[in-house]
Specification:
The complex is a heterodimer of chains A (237) and B (414). Chain A is α+β, with helices and mostly antiparallel strands. Helix content of chain A is 61%, strand content 9%. The relative contact order of chain A is 0.10. In chain B, strands 3-2-1-4-7-6-8-5 form an eight-stranded mixed sheet, with helices on both faces. The chains are: A alpha+beta (237), B alpha/beta (414).
């Protein structure tokens, strides 16, 4: 009459082991994909590094000849993509050592790209504007978030606008040097540098758009002067 | 804070995977024992059975319910049907009286006192060794009773046999969603049957030996889930409950979300409160898998469903908040972006794989449950309705049931 209430402990254990192994498999697979992503980031960075190096070399060669050959291709188009992928990785893969290493490398590439692009633009009068953007992740900075949105929108609208974003708290001497040059303090974040002008706090899209357009005009007035300079190799530095 | 929340999250995911794997392993162990009989069977002996139909304002369905009992493939002189009107205020009583002329039907009328009181009236008047109820919104398949009785014939230690409750007619999306869920329920009940750990002996046509009530007493209120309370009581006394998967009972299901919500609130409230009443059973070895699997599993779902839902709402809120921030910051700036889908942004965190696994096992249970009831392999479209409807609404009846328990508010029947 009374039923058999024997508990099959072995089954409970086996199911436990199966569940644990499913967990391990899932985390293994997840790790595998994380590594794949990190590798993808690394390869994008390598590509950008080569792009910049190649642009630098091309520029050194061409600077002695003509600006005509300076095409859009000298600008590495993948910096933006890398930036958004890195941001996603930071949020979703966690702030691992590898991600923060990539972040540093990215900042360095940004600075190099900035310096080069600025040089090319100044010399050859390529229509462009540059914004250096400093934000923080160390604390909750909702204004930084909003500023980021504004800059992304502007960048999408004006492909000639190059935005370089830097984490204020990154441990990288090159970034620290920039902070010193532009006298940026952590109490004034987000901070922007546009045409050597420091703008602190949040700046709405209309205001920035105007400034960006002005910056474009500034560039457009130069071309007439600069080509002559460049055409004459003796004047060129 | 975030890390505590993730730890809880992963523990709940772990337990949910554990439960699903446990069911699946049980299935693999017992799959050969699942028999689906087609056609008529015969018994060596036909013991007398009393079936009680307790009605409270069931004028729309009761006629068909009684007819389905009269059509049962069981000797008429061995089947006694009690029709009990539990103080209906509609036309139910007049419909019941039409059946008075049948020699094996007895009609009762009483003051409204709740379903368990009607069932107890039936128990007081019965003279057979087997007893069962049939909710007045359900219809028994002609072969259901004889198939159930074959279990008692085969194994004298079986004390109650639950049928496969499926959906009578699924007209709209809400009912089709429930159809998939009932299929899943049949699979789970069958597996719990193998584990000796069934926790509900459903109102539609569960048949008991009279001994159950002689030994353990009559039906109790059981927080409006008397069919759950009696199963708990039987488990506490180690009375064996089986599931007869090929005995089909078709039940009418709530047609609207609101009615479904009320019904489920009652069920979950019943689960929470019966579990509290029988908490002494939890994790006691002598109560078997009921104490180590069924009840903990139910408790896990009461905790994890609202928790996971809360997390989902939080993420959704976060997402909406970021979208609103974008709108507030830049207004409607529709710069047409090249929307390139990049696999890079697919979430590959380990829980994503585990949730997919859980979904697969749930879909398997729906497919196999359907196979057991309709004899068809494959996935019906009902699943498409099931997942969204139940994942959005179920958390609410779970939360409300817990809330009502804390404030000791009793939900109504309808």
């Amino acid at each position: 009459m009374i039923m058999n209430n024997n508990i099959d402990w072995k089954k409970y254990l086996i199911v436990f082991l199966i569940t644990v192994s499913l967990f391990l498999t899932a985390s293994y697979v997840s790790n595998y994909f994380s590594n794949q992503k990190i590798n993808q980031l690394k390869s994008i960075q390598d590509k950008i590094a080569i792009d910049i190096l190649s642009s630098e070399t091309q520029f050194s060669l061409l600077s002695e000849l003509s600006c005509k050959n300076i095409s859009d291709s000298v600008f590495s188009g993948e910096l933006g993509e890398l930036g958004s992928k890195l941001e996603w990785s930071q949020q979703n893969l966690g702030a691992t050592e590898e991600v923060s290493y990539l972040q540093k490398y990215y900042s360095l590439l940004e600075i190099k790209d900035y310096l080069l692009a600025k040089k090319i633009s100044a010399r050859c009068g390529v229509k462009s504007a540059f914004i250096l953007y400093f934000y923080t992740t160390a604390e909750n900075c909702s204004e930084c978030e909003r500023q980021g949105i504004v800059l992304t929108t502007l960048r999408d609208k004006y492909p000639e606008l190059r935005v370089y974003s830097f984490d204020y708290s990154i441990e990288l001497s090159a970034v620290k040097a920039m902070l010193k040059i532009y006298k940026i303090k952590d109490t004034e974040l987000p901070a922007l540098v546009l045409d050597d002008e420091l703008l602190t706090g949040f700046h709405p899209i209309d205001e920035l758009e105007k400034k960006v357009q002005e910056s474009f005009k500034l560039q457009e007035t130069k071309p007439e002067v600069t080509p002559k300079k460049i055409l004459n190799p003796q004047i060129a530095p | 804070m975030a890390s505590i929340s993730s730890v809880i999250f992963y523990i709940l995911i772990f337990l949910s995977v554990y439960v699903q794997v446990f069911f699946f392993v049980t299935f693999l162990e017992n799959r050969k024992k699942i028999v689906i009989r087609n056609g008529k069977i015969k018994l060596a002996k036909y013991p007398a059975v009393t079936i009680v139909v307790s009605c409270w304002n069931e004028e729309k369905t009761v006629y068909k319910t009684v007819r389905s009992l009269l059509n049962l493939n069981y000797p008429k002189n061995k089947l006694k049907i009690f029709l009990i009107d539990d103080g209906s205020t509609d036309n139910t009583w007049n419909i019941l009286r039409k059946f008075e002329k049948y020699p094996n039907i007895k009609v009762f009328h009483k003051e409204n006192g709740g379903k368990y009181t009607a069932l107890n009236l039936g128990l007081e008047n019965m003279k057979s060794d087997f007893f069962g109820g049939l909710d007045a919104d359900s219809f028994a398949d002609p072969e259901s009773l004889i198939r159930i009785m074959s279990f008692f014939e085969k194994d004298p230690s079986i004390m109650a046999v639950a049928p496969s409750v499926t959906i009578n007619d699924s007209k709209n999306i809400v009912q089709r969603a429930q159809k998939a869920e009932y299929h899943m329920g049949i699979y789970f009940r069958k597996m719990l049957g193998f584990l000796g750990a069934i926790n509900v002996t459903p109102g539609p046509l569960t048949i008991f030996r009279k001994k159950v009530f002689d030994d353990l007493g009559s039906y109790r209120h059981g927080h409006n889930t008397e069919d759950m309370e009696i199963a708990y009581r039987m488990q506490k006394n180690s009375y064996k409950i089986e599931h007869c998967n090929d005995a089909y009972v078709y039940t009418n299901t709530p047609t609207t979300i609101r009615k479904l919500y009320k019904q489920r609130l009652r069920w979950i409230y019943g689960f929470v409160n019966n579990t509290i009443d029988y908490r002494s059973v939890l994790f006691k070895k002598k109560y078997g898998n009921f104490a180590f699997f069924t009840l903990p599993m139910g408790i896990i779902s009461v905790i994890s469903i609202p928790y996971l839902f809360g997390r989902m709402i939080y993420s959704l809120g976060d997402f909406l908040y970021s979208k609103i921030t974008v709108l507030n910051t830049i207004g409607f700036h529709f710069t047409i972006k090249n929307f390139n889908f990049d696999t890079f942004f697919i979430n590959m965190q380990s829980f994503a794989f585990l949730i997919v696994l859980i979904y697969f096992l749930i879909i398997f249970s729906i497919i196999f449950g359907r196979k057991m009831t309709e004899g068809k392999w494959g996935l019906s479209l009902d699943v498409i309705y099931f997942f969204p409807i139940f994942s959005i609404i179920a958390p609410f009846w779970f939360m409300k049931a817990v809330y009502n328990t804390i404030l000791s508010k009793k939900p109504a029947w309808r």
